[in-house]
Amino acid sequence: MEEGVSRSxxxxxxxxxxxxxxxxxxxxxxxxxxxxxxxxxxxAFLYLAFFIAYPFVMSIYLSLSSARVGSPDSxxxxxxxxxxxxQDPVFWQTVRNSFVxxxxxxxxxxxxxxxxxxALNRSFxxxxxxxxxxxxxxxxxxxxxxLAWKWMFDSLYSVINWMLMHAHIIDYPWQWLGxxxxxxxxxxxMNVWRGFPFSAVILLxxxxxxxxxxxxxxxIDGAGPLRRFHYVVVPIVRPxxxxxxxYSVVFSFTDFSAVWLLTQGGPYNxxxxxxxxxxxxxxxxxxxxxxxxxxxxxFPFLALIVIFMLRFLRRE
Amino acid sequence: xxxxxxxxxxxxxxxxxLPLSPYLFIVLFPFYWMVITAFKRDxxxxxxxxxxxxxxxxxxxxxxKLLWYGTLFPTWLENSLMIGVLVVFITxxxxxxxxxxxxxxxxxxAQPLSTAMFLSYLIPSTLLFIxxxxxxxxxxxxxxxxxLVIVYPSFTLPFCTWLLMGFVRTVPREIEESAxxxxxxxxxxxxxxxxxxxxxxIITAGIFAFTLTxxxxxxxxxxxxxxxxxxxxxxxxxxxxxxxxxxxGSLMSGALIGAIPVAIVYxxxxxxxxxxxxxxxxx
Lengths: 316, 283
What we know:
heterodimer; A: mainly alpha; 74% helix; B: mainly alpha; two-stranded antiparallel ribbon; flat
């Protein structure tokens, strides 16, 4: 390899000879790139075609059929599953819940992630360790950490209630997972806990991308911290922040495990999101067609985000 | 010493840590609570009279014993680790050539294909678990760990390919060209020049594939039913809840021990991890 590196210097000095040698050598390089390119990516794309594209098309078919788990006779029923869905009040509740869950989680993540990013955006002893600890909720499987939250939200032995009652903030034990309005908050709290480290790291990456000189220049020009943030930091950070935010939105909107493990969509369907309701109907109740129809409602929303994202990236 | 000087001194010594302390508390408290619960005796656990934050009675290993000998926990751990390793291997095997081709070769359709790769990362498992359960059934893998081994690369592959493309682009073309002059085939150049240079990228991709796989829940829940085929995430959350009875001590032990493998991988690769996390959003 060392020999190769030393030769590359001479090759760079005489580009004409490189071209002739390249043409002479052939050896499956430039000439057949069109064919070779396809061969190199074929395994990955065949795999994705079979495990992403094909199931996606299949779910469209399923949603138009009467397919059920373990039942061989399934036939085309047109839009029946969709019309049934539109008449289902739980479905509309699910749609509303999904938006409340996503918007609530993302707003709070940003609100508590931003000060954290600022706090991390300076050098101090042990910064690496602190950063490592902060990211733990994002790394540990949510199925496992959700158990801790379920226990902390327990109806009888909730440690959160113990603390709040002894601090005289509440005067009776709250049913975190049992009361309709409160259950959604509990799910959001856990989702924020799991995701704010990601928001903070993305924001931090954005902040470090702002050159210190630009900030200094704005300072000299007499801009206060708020104006500096608004006119200098935000425009530079915006693209990074937006992409990070969109990822985060997609993951919240399509979440299954956080909600399923805490409430399974209850109480009275007040925490059902697309994923959990589709699981209940499609797998638990065995109605594959209806389940597929529910999951497909994620798609238009997803498509909007993707279009927005691609447009934005292209413009930047 | 008056209050202002004291405050100035605190600010000087602990300034950066003060705003961080509430965050550290919020992040760490659930884990502290897991540890305490995992080792508390039942009578102590369900005693509401005194502050619950420390042991009133001697700690016990009963919950861990129940977890280890009373459930299939060791099997779940084994399943999760085996699936993780195999998925990392499959992912890299498919992602490396794809990343190289998309980053380096010029061929018709390269641009739309790399966009498609990026977009397939955004197709969530929530959208695919119902049809995939049928695909897996059709392949005869339903209720088998192999179902998970073949399906999991569908979410690791797009991300890892995307990540590796960034790394391949950082390798100067001249190095490859000199290999070409030396008579290497493209595959030889890829194997002997590109691969060794992008080892950090390969490690990052492997770490991500492993943690994403280890965290996965909905596919495991949908495809698996026999206890012996469950993964950690699914097994711990299902088999220690019997009817209305939650074995909280054992549940917390399972969550703790189950988290150890990812915690180890994570601790040894913090920089790679943060790099990958931000690279995913920045590139």
